Amino acid sequence: METVGFIGIGTMGIRMAARLLQAGYPLRAYDVLPEALSNVEALGAVACYSPREAAQGSDVMITIVPNSNDVEDAVLGTGGIIEGTHPGQIYIDMSSASPSSSSSSRLAPGSLCPGRLTAPKDKGGTSDTLRRHSPAVPVPGMSTVTAKA
């Protein structure tokens, strides 16, 4: 079963993280608030101390943070997901940020994460990414980036 990295253990994030854990997915979690991290750790997640650390051991990365600035910090900031990503890793942004303003949309072709999927609108070949990971990605309407193989 794929290991899921999860960034953002707030009101919505804790519920989603709990469901992934209940479904048997190994979960590596990070949050800027130590109390939130402790809460998800108590449910069985591995506590990580940066988005990079969560990404280093995960097959799928999920962010669910309040706004575009938080997405950018989690993905592209110091200690961000992009520093710990690896070939074949999937990134899913489920944040409140607009898909067009999120970090995932600004990763240029040829960068570490060149592919982009905005489900359910994308009807192209990258939709296979969502289908392949659909058990770990139960919510439609999220943007996804696949790390370069």
Kindly describe this structure:
The protein has 149 residues and is α/β, with parallel strands linked by helices. It has 6 helices and 7 strands. It has helices at residues 11-22, 34-42, 51-56, 68-76, 103-106, 127-132; strands at residues 4-7, 27-30, 46-47, 60-63, 90-93, 115-118, 143-146. Strands 3-2-1-4-5-7-6 form a 7-stranded mixed beta sheet. The radius of gyration is 14 Å and the shape is globular. It starts with a strand and ends with a strand. Mean pLDDT is 75; it is low at 102-126 and 135-149.
What is the end-to-end distance?
20 Å
Strand share of the residues? 15-25%
The average pLDDT is: 75
Instruction: Report on the biggest sheet.
Output: 7 strands, mixed
- Any low-confidence stretches, pLDDT <50, length ≥5? 102-126, 135-149
Global outline = globular
**Beta-strand segment tally:** 7
Classification by helices and strands: alpha/beta
The run of helices and strands is EHEHEHEHEHEHE
Brief account:
With 149 residues, the chain is α/β, with parallel strands linked by helices. Helix content is 31%, strand content 17%.
What keywords describe this structure?
alpha/beta, disordered C terminus, 149 residues, 7 strands, seven-stranded mixed β-sheet
What order do the helices and strands come in, and which of them pair?
Elements: E1 4-7, H1 11-22, E2 27-30, H2 34-42, E3 46-47, H3 51-56, E4 60-63, H4 68-76, E5 90-93, H5 103-106, E6 115-118, H6 127-132, E7 143-146
Parallel strand pairs: 1-2, 1-4, 2-3, 4-5
Antiparallel strand pairs: 5-7, 6-7
